[in-house]
Amino acid sequence: MGTTAIARRGASPPLVSYAWFTLGWTLLTIVLGAVVRATHSGDGCGASWPSCDGRFFVTSETETSRLIEFTHRAVSGLDLLFVALLLVFVFRALPGGHRARRTAVWTMASIIVEAGIGALIVQYGWVARDTSTPRQISLPLHLVNTLALTGLLALLIWQLRGGGAITFARSRGARALAGLAALLVLVAATGATTSLADTLFEPESLGHGLAQDLESSSALIVRLRVLHPLIAIVTGIVVASYFWRRLDDGMGVRSGQVVLVLLAVQAGLGSLHIVLLTPLATALMHLTVAQTLWIAFSFFAFDRLEAREATA
Questions:
Q1: pTM for the full model?
Q2: Which of 7, 16, 27, 187 has its Cβ near the most Cβ atoms within 10 Å?
Q3: CA neighbor of 188 nearest in space, from 241, 136, 117, 140
Q4: Along the 312 residues of the chain, how does pLDDT read in single tens digits?
Q5: Are 191 and 227 in contact (CB under 8 A)?
Q6: What are phi and psi of 161, to 5 degrees?
Q7: How buried is residue 161: exposed, middle or buried, by Cβ count under 10 Å (0-12/13-18/19+)?
Q8: Cα–Cα distance between 172 and 41 in angstroms, integer?
Q9: CB 90 within 8 Å of CB 64
Q10: How far apart are CA 228 and CA 233, in angstroms?
Q11: Can you name the residues that pair with 55 across neighbouring β-strands?
Q12: Rg of the chain on CA atoms, in Å
């Protein structure tokens, strides 16, 4: 079997299914992290990590914040285990030279970085109602790394299903996709900052929130809050225009349609989230759709970039 054939060989259905399961569990972990932030439960286990105040098990009789934080840590720990097992399974199932092996290693590295950021946040006390600059920096950094993690898992699934090489040749198509990806990351990062501002400086009404945004004495994170919806609107228009024009060219049609639907859903959720004064339910749905949109975009990009290589 040639080198190209080895690198493109698909994996068994059970391995692909397990990779999908790991991606789904990772999304659950990310959403639970948002619950911890929104409920000010980040200090529920104190500054100890990975244990919870020196213990690795808590009961339902403990205070709510500790139970929420412990649950997130337990789910996160399982996520690390699942990704590690995925790495082992990929190396056992696929021959040397298969692209999925390298992607599995990068995925493992990404989740280790994710765990490291989480540990720093806890040990330095950048949790609960802390308004320090390091916390304001660490939260969007944390979210951007989750995009890297879910994007790598999506790439791994795509390769396990027989996807070929990804080329980043200096072409207009590749540059356009890179630009769109950068915009989506920017929206996510500003969204994380805005979400933190809403949590720490919760508005009492729409008018009160707008006054906070415009008041010169407000914290910088609050005054920057208005950037997220503006950037999100511009990005939504640009991304929707790009995908709409490419629905009929035969490459990544299904994932492109999913992206357009998710863009519409996300726009509606974002508006509802603001009108309802940022409740937890809409925040979690907004985050879930944002991550799902990123994954769908990733699959579309992989198809486009592979097709470009195949026809070059």
A1: 0.90
A2: 187
A3: 140
A4: 444 555 556 789 999 999 999 999 999 999 999 999 999 888 888 877 777 877 777 766 568 888 899 999 999 999 999 999 999 999 999 998 899 999 999 999 999 999 999 999 988 889 988 889 999 999 999 999 999 999 999 999 999 999 887 877 656 688 899 999 999 999 999 999 999 999 998 887 888 878 888 787 788 899 889 899 999 999 999 999 999 988 776 666 788 899 999 999 999 999 999 999 889 999 999 999 999 999 999 999 998 888 544 433
A5: no
A6: -85, 5
A7: middle
A8: 46
A9: no
A10: 9
A11: 52
A12: 21
Taking the C-alpha atoms of residue 97 and residue 159, their distance in angstroms, rounded to an integer, is 12
Polymer length in residues for the chain: 312
Please answer whether residues 242 and 180 qualify as being in contact, where contact means their C-beta atoms are separated by less than 8 angstroms.
yes
Q: Please tell me the distance from the alpha carbon of residue 308 to that of residue 300, in angstroms, as a whole number.
A: 12
267 CB-contact burial (10 Å; exposed 0-12 / middle 13-18 / buried 19+):
middle
What residues form DSSP beta bridges with 52? 55
Residue 74 in tokens: 């337990």
Please report how the helices 133-160 and 64-93 are oriented relative to each other, as an axis angle in degrees rounded to 10: 30
Q: How far apart (Å, rounded) are the C-alpha atoms in residues 270 and 229?
A: 8
What ranges make up the beta strands (E) of the chain? Answer: none
Distance in angstroms (rounded) separating the CA atoms of residues 277 and 224: 17
Q: Which residues contact 300 (CB under 8 A, 6 or more apart)?
A: 243, 252, 255, 256, 259
What are the tokens at 6?
């080895």
Which of 201, 274, 204, 194 lies closest to 226, judged by CA?
Answer: 194
Torsions phi, psi for 55 (to 5 deg): -120, 155
Residue 263: closest CA among 312, 300, 226:
300
Q: In the structure encoding, which two tokens stand for residue 123, read together?
A: 């040990």
